[in-house]
Amino acid sequence: MRETVRAGIIGTGFMGRVHARAARLAGARVTGVAGSGLAKAQQAAPLLGADQAYATGAELIESGDVDVVHICTPNHLHAPLALAALDRGLAVVCEKPLATDAATAALLADRAAGAVATVPFVYRFHAMVREARQRVAAGDIGRISVIQGSYLQDWLLRPEDDNWRADPAVGGPSRTFADIGSHWCDLAEFVTGDRITAVSAQTAVVIDERASNAPVLTEDVAIVQFRTAAGAVGTVTTSQVAPGRKNRLFLEISGAAASLAFDQEQPELLWLGRREGSSTLVRDPETLSAAARPYSPLPAGHAQGYHDCFDAFVADTYTALRGERPDGLPTFADGARAALICDAVLASAGTGRWTEV
User: Where is the Gfo/Idh/MocA-like oxidoreductase N-terminal domain (predicted)?
Assistant: First the structure.
């Protein structure tokens, strides 16, 4: 791998800007950007710090001017672009869902074997998440009995709120669960080291028609019961129509000895619960475990957040390009895992029965 990584960004929206910023901070040169057309890419190039604009993602992939491609497009384009980049021998960072169905996601994970191919499950990169994971692994909370939580947003609360994600031809057959439930399930499995093995799900469309005047076919809400390989049970509620909730991912894990709770909107804190009393651990690199400390670069009292997590994720991806293996780096295998759970949730909601993952 060359000394300076050459990064290409496919997608000019919010996530494209986030990816480009993180790539530059990791020491990469953003050599190209592609959008829905050349004009969009030319407009975005100075905002993303890109050297050149390309009319299509395929053109950027075939240019020979990139080492890693960041795919930040609508969901239906993820799989074809990722496959094209892998075929070209490029490293790939692909937004989730990795594909709009589990079979295609599994194919991508198989094709990515031996390559650097990652998915931005960036909540793994909060220092307090790493601290929680370390404490679970060390046996501090004992055998886990219950895993529960939610991921709530309100950005699609009203009928006039609309987005390409609401179109199943573009966003896929699941919206809320594929978009944010995937993050929650990945985080729960990452922290506990345990896997969801069966689900019982309900979904609901709350807004029947949006600004596009097309009937809404993908869920606004999904509520899922589950059980795990180690015998824990759990629930998760996901919603994009929860008034006042902007991006509230909450995870609580109850064990025989203690409980842990993490709230993504208060990421400096980790709640620790015991029968004898509860306490709140505040992020401080001086007191965190060795596993969490690398993800806590700022001194205590200097709040870290979403950008810091994303920057750490991209930095670890580029570290992998140099042949190292950062702990906890989410790969295409993790993206395929999320798609598998999502397919099981949709199947369960459709039949009303428990469904194996």
Answer: 6-113
- In CATH, the architecture of 124-299+330-356 is 2-Layer Sandwich (3.30)
- For 198, residues 6+ apart whose C-beta sits below 8 A from its C-beta are 226, 227, 344, 354, 355, 356, 357
- Count of C-beta atoms within a 10 Å radius of residue 111: 16
95 vs 83: CA distance, rounded Å: 14
Q: How far apart are the first and last CA of the chain?
A: 38
Are both 6-122 and 124-299+330-356 of the same fold? no
Of 349, 145, 91, 128, which is closest to residue 257 (Cα–Cα)? 145
Domain extents for the chain? Answer: 6-122, 124-299+330-356
Per-residue pLDDT of 106-155, as tens digits, reads: 999 999 999 999 999 999 999 999 999 999 999 999 999 999 999 999 99
pLDDT at residue number 211: 85
Confidence category of residue 61, pLDDT binned at 50, 70, 90? very high
* SS3 state at 105: helix
In the prediction, which pLDDT does 214 show? 82
Tell me, what DSSP letter sits at residue 49?
A: T
CATH assignment, 6-122: 3.40.50.720
- Residue pair 207/120 in contact (Cβ under 8 Å)? The answer is no
Give the pLDDT band (50/70/90) at residue 303.
Answer: very high
Q: Which residues contact 90 (CB under 8 A, 6 or more apart)?
A: 61, 66, 67, 68, 69
pLDDT surpassing 80 at residue 213: no
- Confidence bin at 1 (pLDDT 50/70/90): low
Instruction: Work out the angle at residue 185's Cα, subtended by the Cα atoms of residues 177 and 258, and round it to the nearest 5 degrees.
Output: 140
